[in-house]
Amino acid sequence: MGQNKREQWGSKFGFIMSSAGAAIGLGAIWKFPYVTGMSGGGAFLMLFILFTILIGLPLVIAEFIIGRGAQTEAVSAYRKLSPKSSLKYTGALGVVGSFLLLSFYSVIGGWVLIYSILALGGRVIGNGADYPGLFERITGTPTIALLGLAAFLLINIAVVSLGIQNGIEKASKYMMPLLFVFFVMLVIRSLTLEGAMEGVRFFLYPDFSAITRESVLYALGHSFFALAVGFSVLVTYSSYLGRDVSLPSSANSVAFMNIFVSLLAGLAIFPVVFAFGMEPAQGPGLLFMVLPAVFSQLPFGELFLAGFLILFLFATLTSSFSMLEIIVSALTAGGKRTRRASTWSLGVVLFFAGIPAALSFNVLEGVLLFGRSIFDLTDFLVSNILLPLGCLLISLFVSRRMDPKITEKEFMVGSISSGYYIVWRFLIKWIVPATIILVFLNSLGIM
Which UniProt keywords apply (predicted)? Predict the structure, then answer.
């Protein structure tokens, strides 16, 4: 397929909604609230916002610059912009990382899909409901876990096979605004509960005595994990972008929406948790076990739980679209394979690749590699090794291997202040790599 035949986003709004959808997923809605709860609340929130602006945002701009500068998918983009560079395989790393991430991310997506269906049918909340038991049945029954995985992947295949404008953009333009509407409704309901202000105070009031070295480093790591940077999915998305769109302002919109959704997630969850005397530091079970118990004590609780789960499903899907797209775009780059055939073939391969992770909570529960289950090992490899490595390589590539004239030209479209470019250049060249190395070493237990 020639460069002139490449699809483009139908509008800047569609591009921003799709990019925000790529960023706003498990990190913002599932991981952020429970990590905040375990890390002292407001102080962690402040650190997260600071690092999102200083670390995550420069990386989003960097991926946008690489993608539109090359006007091709991620694997070819780095080779095109710097063919002799040792960093030219960064895009290939992103494809491999996205494949591994999607293989276990789709397992969680399957859980969310099943919970959403059950909640809509009024089958999650009930008298004497055993919420930990329900979670164990969903994750511990092989047939249910595999059906959830297959159904989640089928939705992804159906959307991505339709292309950029008719598939990903159209879905994101509906899903993301609906996500915000659902969230605002939940926040309003949460804030009207008696005792809700204790949760607001916990979430927004910074208690710096609760900050530890570990929580600082976790806030650093989460700042780029939550923005979908590191695996070049935003390189692929921006390669479909017209030359007249300002990349920094688009990146600012994506970062702002990510912070805003994280704030909404906290304001939807913590007031409810405190109003009913729950423990905020519940860990990963907060979404699937604690919240159903809390919503069960509210009037129309099943309805609000269903709404929360549906918006969570929307966010999970828009993120998985981006992971699938980077692989599909690489497979179809030469024009020899069609999008539809590539997407369906890839979906089948991903289903089989996801089976070990889906069965890690049941028939393969006793199988441990390096002391971890298959699911946890894949998660560790992706989140703690490949993702920080991808972020580091992208920051080094755009600041030290890419032609500075191209980076400045792409950055300055839309009459952006030259001062902003100088600040971004300094951050991406020095501060971002140093910070990522710090997070990387900590995640490996070296520090």
Answer: Membrane, Symport, Transmembrane, Transmembrane helix, Transport
Rounded CA-CA distance 57/12 in Å is 18
Give the dihedral sign, CA 233/353/390/384. positive
Comparing 168 with 439, the larger pLDDT belongs to 168
Report the SS3 class of residue 372: strand
> Where is 439: in which H helix or E strand?
helix 432-443
Sort 229 into a burial class: Cβ within 10 Å, 0-12 / 13-18 / 19+.
buried
Does domain 3-443 correspond to CATH entry 1.10.4160.10? Answer: yes
* Bridge partners for 408 per DSSP: none
Residue that has been written with the tokens 């952020």 in this structure: 32
Q: What is the DSSP string of 100-154?
A: HHHHHHHHHHHHHHHHHHHHHTT-SS-TT--HHHHHHHHHH-HHHHHHHHHHHHH
Whose tokens are 């009037």? That residue is 299
- Cβ neighbours, 10 Å, residue 443: 18
436 near 388, Cβ under 8 Å?
yes
Rounded to whole angstroms, how far apart are CA atoms 102 and 322? 10
Q: Give 335: exposed, middle or buried? Use CB within 10 Å, 0-12, 13-18, 19+.
A: exposed
Rounded Cα distance between 168 and 166, Å, is 7
Full-model pTM: 0.93
The C-alpha angle with vertex 250 and arms to 330 and 343, in degrees rounded to 5, equals 25
In the chain, where the domains are located: 3-443
pLDDT band at residue 2 under the 50/70/90 scheme: very low
Per residue in 117-173, pLDDT (tens digit) is 999 998 898 766 788 889 889 999 999 999 999 999 999 999 999 999 999 999 999
3-state helix vs strand vs coil in the chain, percent to 5: 75, 0, 25
CA-CA-CA-CA torsion for 389, 331, 60, 253, nearest 10 degrees? -150
Residue 155 three-state SS: helix
Helix axes 170-191, 247-275, angle to 10 degrees: 30
Neighbours of 177 (CB within 10 A): 13
Distance CA 1, CA 279 (A): 55
Helix (H, G, I), strand (E, B) or coil at 10: coil
> CA dihedral in degrees (197, 205, 207, 446; nearest 10)?
110
What is the token pair recorded at 53? 């602006």
Residues β-bridged to residue 372: 369
